[in-house]
Specification:
The complex is a heterodimer of chains A (264) and B (844). By secondary structure, chain A is of the alpha/beta class. Chain A has a single domain (6-263), classed as P-loop containing nucleotide triphosphate hydrolases (Rossmann fold, 3-Layer(aba) Sandwich). Chain A contains 9 helices and 10 strands. In chain A, strand 1 (6-17) and strand 2 form a beta hairpin. The model of chain A is unreliable at 260-264 (pLDDT under 50). By secondary structure, chain B is an alpha+beta fold. The chains are: A alpha/beta (264), B alpha+beta (844). The structure holds adenosine-5'-diphosphate and magnesium ion (MG). Adenosine-5'-diphosphate (ADP) binds next to strand 2 and helix 1 of chain A.
C-alpha cells in the first residue's frame, strides 16, 4: 500500500431524524475518509446508520451537521468539492458526472434497454460514451448478448451487473453501492462482487459498499464497522472469517450495552 | 369491507378528485341543457303569455285578399257593443323598419320590420319611458333599439312603404308579447299615426287600411267567443284565448324540445368522453391497489365481495360527482338563460327531471365505466399479495380489436354501398350510420393503433433522441390501453370538431366557388336589406347609373319541368336579360352554349335525370298566383340551348326574362352591375342608393361574407358545445399522467439519483403528455376529416373524398393539443420532479 489518498471524506457528520422524544441520531459525529482506488465496505447491524452515511456521502441526503468532500482524481488536489451547501442542481450534476450508484434493487429504468441504462448518466450529461471503455466494461460484466434486452427480460443478477456497468461507464470519482447483493443468490452475488473487485484492481476505481454480509465484506480492502451511528472498528485486508469474528464481537458488545440499558 | 374501501377512497382523495371532475363536467352539461330548455319553455309559456285576450278575430285566409282593406273599424264598434265585453282593441300592422346608424337596415331577419299601433294591453311591456301618445313620438322594441344604438329621448328614422320614411322621437322601449302567431313589431306608433303611416307592401297606397286583427277581452270566455262568432260572418276567424294560449304553449314546448335535443346530443358526446376518462382512472386506481385486493382475497374476501366493493366505490363517486354536477349544471343553466336573447321577463325553471337525470347519468356512467375494473380487481389472485411485481389481470385486446375491425369494415361497407344508387333519404341515413359505426370502430381499435403506430415511432425516435424524448416516448407507449383511453377521450371531441369543420369548409368552399364563378370580381352587388326584395324603382335606379355596362336582375321562382312524357318535376328557375348572362352573371356551362336567345339553360343534374340533351325541346309550366291563390299554369316551350351546373345565384332552369309569362310569382333580392372603373362604378351606385335604407351595396367578397355568416355562426356554436367534451378529455390527460407519475415513484427516484435534474424530469413528463395529446389530436383530426367527408357526401351528394380539408382548423387543433399536453403536464410534472429520491430507492 502506498500513501493513503482520500476520494471521499467526511468530518463530524451528524444526522438526526425527528425531534424531542422521538429523535433518532442515525449518524453521530462521524469523521471518515475513503481511500482512492480502494474497495471499502461499511458493515453494521440493521439500523446502525449504514445507508444514512452513504446517502449523506453521495449528496442524496443532507446531514444535520458536518461536512463532506469529494476529492477529484483527475485534476489533482485542487479539485475538491464540498457537498454541504450545494444546491440541488449542482448536486445533481455532481452525482451524474462524478459518482456511480448501485442500489439493492430497482436500479434500472424499465423502459430502457440494458445498453441505454448503462449509458444513461452520459446521456443525461449530453456526453458521448467512450465506446472502447464501454465495451471493456460490458465485456467485463459479461452482458454483450443482453444489451438490447429490457430489465424485465433480465435476471436479478444480470440487472445488478447492468447497474454496475452503468456505475462505472462514466469513470466516476467514486461508486456507491448499497447492499448490491442483498437481493441476489450467493452465486449471482459473487459475480457482482467479483466484478466490483476487478474494477478496483484493474481500473483503479474507488468503491464504497454498504453490506451486512461478511462474505461480501471479505472482498473489500478495508471494512468499517458502524454501530449506533458511530464507527466503532476497522479492519484492513479482511477475510470473511475475520469479518465474521468482528461482527460477533460487536454483536455481543451491543447485546451487553442493550442489557445494561434495559436494566437501568 | 365497505368501510375499508371507503377509507381507502379517502386516502386517494387527490387521485379521486380528477375522476370527480370528469363526472361533474359531464353531469353539469346534461343538467344545464335541461335547465335551459325548461326555462326557455317556461319563459315563453309563463312570462310571455297574455291573460287579457278572450277572443281573437282575424280575416279568414281566403278572404284575406293581398289588396285587402283589413278589418273595418265598424267591426270594432259592433264587437264593443256585445254584452260581457270589457275591451276591444283593433291591432294595426304594417311595414316599418328601424334604420341603423349607418343609414341602412340590418341584414338579418331579426329584429323584424313590422310596425304596429300602441295600446294599453299586455301586448306591450315597457322596459323604459312611456308609450307614444301623439304624432312625432314612437316606441321601439328594446333589442331593436339596442342594435340600432338608439335610447329614449333619441330620434329614430323609420322606413315605411313606397320609399316614405318618418323621423320621430323615441319616448319608450318595450318588450312584445304576441297573442298568437304574428310578426313581432320593432316599432309602435299611437293609434292615429299608425293609421296614417302603416301600410303593408301589398296595400293600396291611397286607402286607409283596416285592422290586421281584433282582440276582445271579457269575463266569460266561451260565451264571449260564441257571441263574437254570432256577430261576424264566415269571413272571420275567431279563436278563444284558451286556444291561443294552448297553441303558444305547445309551440314553446316544441321549441324547447328542439333546443333540448340538440344540446343533449352534445351532452352525450361530452359524457362519452367522460366514460373513457372515468374508466381509465378507475383502471389505474385498481391497478395501483392490486396488492390490497390480493390481501383482501387472501384474508377470505370472495370475488363478488371485491367486485361489489369497487362498484360501491364507483357509486359513491357517482353520487358525489352527480351532486356537484347537478349544482354546477343548474348554475350554468341559469347563467345560460341570461345569455339567450329572450324577450321580456326570464323565468327560471329547474324541474325535478333535470336533477333526477343528473343523478342517473352520474351514477350510471360511473358504474358502467368502473364495471370492467371491478371485475378485474375481483380476479386478482390472493397470491399476488406476496409478490412485489403483482399486476391486475388484463383482458386481452383480441376481442376488442376484432370488434373494432368489424365495425370499421362494416361502416365503410355501409357507406360504399350507398354510392351505387341514388342518394335518397334511406341511403343518406345508411351512410351516416356507417360513418358513426366506423367511428366507434376506431375507438375500439385505439389500443392496437397505439401499439401499431406509436410504438414503432417510439422505437425509431427513441433510439435517436436524447434521454428525455426516449423515456417520454417509451412511457407513452408503455401501456397502450391507458394511452389509448386517454387519447380516445380527446379524439371524441376533436374528431367531431374536425368533422364539422370539414363540412363547414366544404360548404364554404363550394359556395365561394359558386359565387366567384357567377359574379365577376369587378361587379357591384345591389342587394335588398333585411331579407326584403328589390322593387321596380330600385331596378330603374340601378339601370340609370352612369357607366353601367351590364346589369343582371335575376328573378327566382318555381316551375314544373314537363318532359315529352311522364310526370313533371318541380324545378327552380332564374329569369334574366340574355345580355347580362355571361357578363354581369356568369353561368357554369357544361354543354352547349349560354345564349338565352337560343333557348334555356338546363341544370345538368335535372337534365340527366329527365334524359334531356342540348337541342331537345322542353315545356315549362309556371304557376302564376291569381287572386284566389290558385295557378293559371301558363306553359312555355323552349329549346335546351345548354346545360349548366346550378348554383346559389343561378338556380335550376335559366331563361330569358321575356319568356316569363306575366304575373308569375318570382322574387328578386339582388342585382349585379358591371361597367367601367369598378371604384367609380361602386361610388356611383352607392350614391344613387344612399337614400334607400332598404338597399345595400356590396362587392363580391362582401356578398360572400354575408352569405357565409350563418354557417360561421352555427359552426362557432357547435365548436363551443363540443368544447365540453374536449375539456373533460383534458382532465383525462392530467389524470393519466398524475397516476402514472405516482406509479413510477421508484424509477423517478433512480432517475433523479443518477443525475436527472428536476427541470429534466419535468421536461420528460411534459413531453410524454404532449405525445399523448398530439396522438389523440392527430387521430381526432384524421378521423374527423374522414367523418366530415362522409357528412358532406350525405349533405351535398359530393364524392366522399371531395371534401375540403380545414387546414387552419386542423392546425389550430393540433397546436391546441400540444398546448393541452403542456398544460395537462404542469401538475403531474411538478409532482414527478419533487419525488423524494431516498423514499424511492429505499428498500422496505
Ligand atoms: N427517514 C427517516 N426518518 C426517521 N428515521 C430514519 C429515517 N431513515 C433512517 N432512520 C433511522 O435512522 C437509523 C439508521 O437507519 P439506516 O441508515 O437506514 O440504517 P441501516 O442502513 O444501517 O439499516 C435507524 O434507526 C432508522 O430507523
Ligand atoms: Mg440500509
Amino acid at each position: 500500500m502506498t500513501s493513503f489518498e482520500a476520494a471521499v471524506s467526511a468530518e463530524d457528520l451528524t444526522k438526526r431524524y425527528g425531534t424531542g422524544d422521538a429523535q433518532v441520531t442515525a449518524l453521530d459525529a462521524v469523521t471518515v475518509a475513503f481511500g482512492r482506488g480502494e474497495l471499502t465496505a461499511i458493515m453494521g447491524p440493521s439500523g446502525s446508520g449504514k445507508s444514512t452515511l452513504m446517502h449523506c456521502l453521495a449528496g442524496l441526503d443532507t446531514p444535520t451537521s458536518g461536512r463532506v468532500w469529494l476529492h477529484g482524481a483527475r485534476h489533482g488536489s485542487a479539485d475538491r468539492v464540498e457537498l454541504s451547501g450545494l444546491r440541488d442542481d449542482a448536486l445533481t450534476a455532481l452525482r451524474r458526472d462524478r459518482m456511480g450508484f448501485v442500489f439493492q434493487a430497482f436500479n434500472l429504468l424499465p423502459t430502457l434497454t440494458a445498453w441505454e441504462n448503462i449509458t444513461l448518466p452520459l446521456d443525461l450529461a449530453g456526453r458521448k460514451p467512450d465506446l472502447g471503455f464501454a465495451d471493456t466494461v460490458v465485456d467485463a460484466v459479461g452482458l454483450r448478448d443482453r444489451l438490447h434486452h429490457r430489465p424485465s427480460q433480465l435476471s436479478g443478477g444480470q440487472q445488478q451487473r447492468v447497474a454496475c456497468a452503468r456505475a462505472l461507464v462514466s469513470r466516476p470519482d467514486v461508486v456507491f453501492a448499497d447492499e448490491p447483493t442483498g437481493a441476489l443468490d450467493s452465486r449471482a452475488g459473487a459475480e457482482v462482487l467479483g466484478f466490483l473487485r476487478r474494477s478496483v484492481d484493474e481500473l483503479g476505481q474507488t468503491v464504497v459498499m454498504v453490506t451486512h454480509d461478511p462474505v461480501a465484506a471479505g472482498y473489500a480492502d478495508r471494512v468499517l464497522f458502524l454501530a449506533d451511528g458511530a464507527i466503532v472498528d476497522e479492519l484492513r485486508d479482511p477475510s470473511a472469517d475475520r469479518v465474521l469474528d468482528r461482527v460477533r464481537g460487536l454483536e455481543s458488545a451491543a447485546r451487553g450495552r442493550a442489557g445494561v440499558g434495559a436494566g437501568a | 369491507m365497505l368501510r375499508a374501501m371507503l377509507r381507502d377512497l379517502r386516502a386517494h382523495l387527490g387521485r379521486v378528485a380528477m375522476t370527480l371532475a370528469a363526472i361533474v363536467l359531464g353531469v353539469g352539461f346534461v343538467v344545464a341543457t335541461w335547465v335551459v330548455s325548461d326555462s326557455a319553455a317556461a319563459t315563453v309559456r309563463g312570462g310571455g303569455q297574455r291573460t287579457d285576450v278572450s277572443a281573437l278575430v282575424q280575416l279568414e285566409r281566403r278572404a284575406a285578399d293581398p289588396r285587402r282593406p283589413g278589418i273595418a273599424p265598424e267591426v270594432v264598434t259592433r264587437l264593443a257593443a256585445l254584452p260581457g265585453v270589457s275591451r276591444v282593441e283593433g291591432v294595426r300592422s304594417g311595414y316599418a323598419a328601424l334604420v341603423g346608424a349607418d343609414g341602412k337596415l340590418g341584414t338579418t331577419y331579426w329584429p323584424g320590420t313590422a310596425g304596429t299601433d300602441w295600446d294599453g294591453s299586455q301586448r306591450f311591456e315597457l322596459t323604459a319611458g312611456r308609450g307614444p301618445q301623439r304624432a312625432g313620438e314612437v316606441a321601439l322594441e328594446y333589442q331593436a333599439a339596442a342594435e340600432a344604438g338608439i335610447s329614449v329621448g333619441g330620434r329614430a328614422r323609420i322606413l315605411l312603404t313606397e320609399g316614405r320614411d318618418d323621423t320621430a322621437t323615441v319616448v319608450g322601449l318595450f318588450a312584445y308579447h304576441p297573442s298568437g302567431r304574428e310578426f313581432d313589431p320593432a316599432v309602435a306608433y299611437d293609434g292615429d299615426t299608425a293609421a296614417r303611416l302603416l301600410r303593408s307592401q301589398d296595400d293600396d297606397p291611397a286607402a286607409v287600411p283596416g285592422f290586421d286583427r281584433v282582440e276582445v277581452s271579457g269575463a266569460a270566455e266561451d260565451a264571449l267567443v260564441a257571441a263574437v262568432r254570432g256577430q261576424l260572418g264566415a269571413d272571420y276567424e275567431v279563436r278563444s284565448g284558451g286556444e291561443l294560449r294552448e297553441e303558444l304553449a305547445r309551440s314553446a314546448d316544441s321549441d324547447a324540445d328542439v333546443i333540448r335535443k340538440a344540446l343533449l346530443t352534445f351532452a352525450a358526446v361530452a359524457l362519452m368522453a367522460g366514460v373513457f376518462v372515468i374508466a381509465n382512472t378507475f383502471t389505474m386506481l385498481v391497478t395501483q391497489r392490486t396488492r390490497q385486493f390480493a390481501l383482501l382475497r387472501a384474508v377470505g374476501a370472495r370475488r363478488a365481495q371485491v367486485r361489489r366493493a369497487v362498484l360501491a366505490e364507483a357509486v359513491v363517486l357517482g353520487v358525489v360527482g352527480a351532486t356537484v354536477g347537478v349544482a354546477l349544471g343548474v348554475g350554468l343553466g341559469l347563467l345560460g338563460m341570461r345569455v339567450l336573447p329572450i324577450v321580456g321577463t326570464v323565468r327560471y325553471a329547474v324541474s325535478p327531471w333535470a336533477i333526477l337525470l343528473g343523478y342517473a347519468v352520474g351514477i350510471v356512467v360511473t358504474v358502467v365505466a368502473a364495471y370492467g375494473s371491478a371485475r378485474r380487481a375481483a380476479r386478482v389472485s390472493p397470491m399476488a399479495a406476496l409478490r412485489t411485481d403483482a399486476a391486475v389481470p388484463r383482458r386481452s385486446l383480441v376481442l376488442r380489436t376484432v370488434l373494432g375491425v368489424v365495425a370499421v369494415a362494416g361502416g365503410v361497407a355501409m357507406i360504399a354501398l350507398t354510392r351505387a344508387a341514388e342518394l335518397d333519404e334511406p341511403a343518406r341515413i345508411q351512410a351516416m350510420a356507417g360513418a358513426v359505426l366506423a367511428w366507434v370502430g376506431v375507438l375500439l381499435m385505439a389500443p392496437v393503433l397505439v401499439a401499431g403506430v406509436l410504438r414503432p415511432l417510439a422505437r425509431v425516435l427513441g433510439a435517436r433522441g436524447g434521454p428525455v424524448t426516449r423515456i417520454a416516448l417509451r412511457n407513452a407507449v408503455r401501456d397502450p390501453r391507458r394511452t389509448a383511453a386517454t387519447a380516445s377521450a380527446l379524439m371524441i371531441g376533436l374528431s367531431l370538431v374536425c368533422a364539422f369543420a370539414t363540412v363547414g369548409q366544404t360548404l364554404t368552399a363550394s359556395l365561394t366557388d359558386e359565387i366567384r364563378t357567377a359574379v365577376p370580381p369587378d361587379a357591384v352587388v345591389v342587394r335588398a336589406a333585411a331579407f326584403g326584395q328589390l322593387d321596380d324603382a330600385a331596378r330603374a335606379t340601378a339601370a340609370a347609373v352612369p357607366g353601367v355596362g351590364a346589369l343582371a336582375v335575376p328573378r327566382l321562382g318555381g316551375a314544373e319541368l314537363l318532359p315529352a312524357s311522364g310526370k313533371g318535376v318541380e324545378v327552380q328557375f332564374t329569369a334574366l336579360d340574355p345580355a347580362a348572362l355571361g357578363t354581369a352573371l356568369r353561368p357554369r356551362v357544361t354543354a352547349g352554349g349560354s345564349d338565352l336567345r337560343g333557348g334555356v339553360l338546363l341544370d345538368e343534374q335535372r337534365a340527366a335525370e329527365a334524359g334531356l340533351k342540348v337541342g331537345d325541346e322542353v315545356r315549362l309550366r309556371f304557376g302564376a298566383a291569381d287572386a284566389a291563390g290558385g295557378s293559371t299554369g301558363a306553359e312555355v316551350r323552349a329549346r335546351v340551348a345548354g346545360l349548366h351546373r346550378s348554383s346559389e345565384l343561378l338556380r335550376g332552369v335559366v331563361l330569358d326574362q321575356a319568356l316569363l309569362p306575366a304575373g308569375v310569382d318570382s322574387y328578386n333580392d339582388s342585382m349585379y352591375v358591371l361597367g367601367g372603373d369598378p371604384g367609380a362604378l361602386r361610388a356611383g351606385v352607392e350614391r344613387v342608393f344612399a337614400a334607400r335604407p332598404d338597399v345595400v351595396v356590396l362587392d363580391r367578397e362582401e356578398l360572400l361574407d354575408e352569405l357565409l355568416a350563418p354557417f360561421q355562426l352555427v359552426l362557432g356554436l357547435v365548436y363551443v358545445l363540443l368544447g365540453a367534451a374536449v375539456v373533460i378529455a383534458v382532465f383525462g390527460v392530467v389524470n393519466t399522467l398524475a397516476l402514472s407519475v405516482l406509479e413510477r415513484t421508484r424509477e423517478l427516484g433512480v432517475f433523479r439519483a443518477l443525475g436527472a435534474s428536476r427541470p429534466l424530469v419535468r421536461r420528460t413528463v411534459r413531453r410524454e403528455s404532449v405525445v399523448i395529446s398530439l396522438y389523440g389530436g392527430l387521430l381526432g383530426i384524421g378521423v374527423g376529416v374522414l367523418l366530415g367527408g362522409v357528412m358532406q357526401y350525405v349533405i351535398l351528394a359530393n364524392p366522399v373524398f371531395d371534401m375540403s380539408v380545414p387546414w387552419s382548423t386542423a392546425g389550430v387543433a393540433l397546436a391546441g393539443m400540444a398546448l393541452v399536453g403542456v398544460l395537462a403536464a404542469l401538475w403531474p410534472a411538478r409532482r414527478a420532479a419533487r419525488a423524494d429520491i431516498l423514499a424511492a430507492i429505499a428498500t422496505e
